[in-house]
Amino acid sequence: MTTAVLTPTEPLKASDRCDRCGAAAYVRVVLGGGELLFCAHHGKKYNDSLAKVAIEIHDFSDQLTETPKVAAEEER
Q1: Are residues 39 and 56 in contact, defined by beta-carbon separation less than 8 angstroms?
Q2: Cβ proximity of 37 and 27 under 8 Å
Q3: Domain boundaries, the chain
Q4: Given 1, 27, 34, 68, which is the most exposed site by the fewest CB atoms within 10 A?
Q5: Which residues contact 26 (CB under 8 A, 6 or more apart)?
Q6: Burial of 25 from C-beta contacts in 10 A (0-12 / 13-18 / 19+)
Q7: Burial, 59: exposed, middle or buried (Cβ in 10 Å; 0-12, 13-18, 19+)?
Q8: Gap between the Cα atoms of 71 and 76, Å rounded
Q9: Are 59 and 39 in contact (CB under 8 A)?
Q10: 57 φ/ψ angles, rounded to the nearest 5 degrees
Q11: Residue 13 carries which DSSP code?
Q12: What's the CA gap between 40 and 61, in Å, rounded?
């Protein structure tokens, strides 16, 4: 029996880009041989197929709808 060891996920950086289109990455897919990064659009588009082969999928696309912590009070 094999046991998978899951490591803590680092947050994505501004320099991380979608492997499909080059937009900012919000989804990290961990596979047996590495990882793929996707923008929110492509992460959703390929989610069903990726879920069948991925070890882990980390979706940070909820950050797209968060109000920045530095936003002025009237913008919150």
Answers
A1: no
A2: yes
A3: 27-75
A4: 1
A5: 12, 38, 39, 40, 43, 59, 60, 61, 63, 64
A6: buried
A7: middle
A8: 7
A9: no
A10: -130, 125
A11: P
A12: 6
